[in-house]
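Input record, target 12 of the design panel.
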């Protein structure tokens, strides 16, 4: 919280809730109850019934890992008249049917 930087999204609950001025985050996830009109105009707030759950979801959405390395598994099976981009990522044990089109950023898993 105290080390947040501009552009960051941070969780402001408990004792941190009253210290929004001490953080440099751009967005604060807070419990929606008890938010004052002054806070609504002064800060970028994301109001939530369950701020911890919303923060966990935001972390998953905003901190994605590196994109998968493009490549097609040697055991990949494509049906007749399918178009497969060489830039796609196709994992082992994947099969697609006839007349399928797999684009450049597609990632296919078996199952």
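The sequence produced for target 12 reads:
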């Amino acid at each position: 919280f105290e080390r947040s930087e501009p552009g960051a999204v941070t969780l402001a609950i408990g004792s941190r809730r009253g210290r929004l001025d001490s953080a440099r985050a751009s967005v604060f996830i807070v419990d929606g109850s008890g938010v004052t009109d002054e806070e609504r105009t002064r800060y970028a707030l994301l109001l939530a019934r369950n701020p911890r759950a919303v923060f966990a979801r935001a972390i998953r959405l905003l901190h994605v890992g590196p994109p998968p390395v493009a490549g097609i598994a040697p055991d990949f099976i494509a049906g007749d008249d399918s178009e497969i981009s060489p830039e796609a990522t196709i994992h082992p044990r994947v099969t697609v049917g006839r007349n399928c089109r797999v684009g450049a950023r597609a990632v296919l898993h078996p199952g």
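Residues 51-62 form the longest helix (12 residues).
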